[in-house]
Design goal:
Elements lengths: L6 E6 L12 E6 L5 H8 L18 E5 L4 E4 L10 H15 L5 E9 L6 H12 L4 E6 L6 H15 L6 E3 L8 H13 L1
Parallel strand pairs: 2-4, 2-5, 5-6, 6-7
Antiparallel strand pairs: 1-3, 3-4
Length: 193
């Protein structure tokens, strides 16, 4: 699948600004600052297509990026404590608007930080994906920050969480490209069938 010819298409800050769902969509979800935008950039081999920041809450809109065969959808991160109550409500409405819109979701890439246990918000999100019967896999990012021993320990930990539920997880790094080919393969299978 062509991951190179990509362009920014639209940003939606409110549900009524959402683009029509006329193409399969690959959706990137995860808590604030986990590395969603970095992963999208890596996938499409671009440095700054999606805005990356060391400050959490960088992506405040749902951003759509167009590839020939599908759309990549960068969701605003959840779980950032310093966001105002108003902003949290806007976020919840926007996400609800997106997922209630009967969209052609080919795959949700749920991103976790490989160094840490998933948060309560992460588990809520995963349970939501299961309840809605949405196709998804987990990407455990920032694996470059783990040494060999830590990597093996975290891999076992995530396997203990997910294997029995048949949930696939992919250790990954936007820094080194570890896991990138596997992820591309999964996306291609989901989009092209
Ligand atoms: P929001 O838009 O705020 O929800 O954040 P995000 O999930 O889009 O995260 P973003 O891609 O902006 O990355 C957040 C920070 O983590 C940045 O400083 C990135 O450089 C860093 N980062 C992302 N992925 C990796 C990775 O695989 N390894 C390392 N070492 N750092 C990473
Ligand atoms: Mg982002």
């Amino acid at each position: 699948m062509n991951f190179q010819s990509v362009e920014f298409e639209a940003a939606a800050g409110r549900a009524d600004q959402l683009k029509k769902s006329d193409l399969p969509e690959v959706v990137f979800a995860g808590k604030s600052n986990v590395g969603k935008s970095s992963l999208i950039n890596k996938l499409v081999s671009r440095k700054a297509l999606a805005r990356v920041s060391a400050t959490p809450g960088k992506t405040a809109t749902i951003n759509f990026f167009r590839l020939p065969a599908c759309r990549l959808v960068d969701l605003p991160g959840y779980g950032y404590a310093k966001v105002s109550q108003n902003e949290k409500q806007r976020w919840a409405k926007l996400m609800q608007g997106y997922f209630d819109d009967d969209r052609r979701i080919a795959l949700v890439v749920q991103i976790l930080d490989m160094r840490h246990e998933p948060t309560a918000d992460d588990f809520d999100m995963i349970n939501f994906l299961i309840e809605r019967e949405l196709p998804f896999l987990v990407v455990c990012t920032k694996c470059d920050k783990l040494n060999k021993t830590q990597f093996a320990a975290q891999e076992n930990y995530f396997a203990s969480l997910f294997d029995e539920h048949g949930i696939e997880f992919i250790p990954y790094s936007s820094q080194t490209g570890f896991g990138l080919e596997t992820l591309k393969q999964r996306i291609e299978n989901a989009v092209l069938g």
